Amino acid sequence: MRHFTFVVCVIASGSGLKWNLTGVTVAGNGASGHNAENLNQPRWLYIDANDILYICDYNNNRIQRWLLGATNGTTVAGQSDGSAGAGSNQLHQPGGIDFDNNGYMYVADSGNDRVQRYAPNSNNGTTVAGSAGNEGSATNELHQPVGVVVDDNFNIFISDMGNKRVVKWAANATNGTILIDGSSNGAANGQLKNPYGILLINGSSNQIYLSDQNKDYVGIWTFGAGIANTTWFTANGTDLNQPTQITMDRYGNLYVADMNNQRVVVFCPNSTTGNVVVGTGTNTTPTLQHVGGIAFDSNLNLYVSDINENKVFKYARL
Fold this sequence. Notes:
Distance between the termini: 16 Å
Helix content: under 10%
CATH architecture: 6 Propeller
Number of domains: 1
Oligomer: single chain
Order of helices and strands: EEEEEEEEEEEEEEEEEEEEEEEEEEEE
CATH superfamily: TolB, C-terminal domain
Structural class: mainly beta
Radius of gyration: 18 Å
Number of helices: 0
């Protein structure tokens, strides 16, 4: 079989980052069922320090833990039969996932307008932001939260997509603090409309990376600002189209799941123009349909969830 590679960024050693463009299925069998081997519109991905893969199995209303090399996943949040609900052991269309330093898992439970926290080895969540069935814009409410990230002090940062804002929830708080407010629905480039992916900036106490699904960009935002400081819109001459999850590698390269362009894009440090890593514009096999989530393991192998294919693919680093 012929293999293709693509160099996207140069790292400190002077060598380039390269991936095999022939992807291997590591989770899901393509069917949209709710059995242990199935996924149904998988989205946000997370890989822990032990290279265990966690998948937001969106339309199965659950989080699946997938050991690398396994053919079946294990449900660690929500119901294994894919049923939705608002109980402490249920989810409704989970959008994002993160872990804190104590191994607690946080899930943006989009359909229930809340964020749930799970102790290690527990399938019963505790609501730590918002409340089930109470969508709203008050500071103790959320509306379709998607992205979630937890810092070293256990502060929870949430892309509250339905409210067009980013909020911070301190540990054990009953109300959040609005950090970025896009509710004015501004039309200018760099304003906030539908925040999705969220990523903390190392060493910064007042800035984050955000992807905006409506405005089709990724940007650096300062808390309290009305417009992004820096924005990235294009890769290989083509505008982003509904970007979702964003992540960063150990070299400071920013990666974007460019959903409706069927590709993953990287923005190298100090560059405002992206390059395609896998997907449209490369010789990627299989052809990606709708990229939902991205993550790296400890060896910088790239994992991509495909919403339409109901699979997660692995692209090996070379």
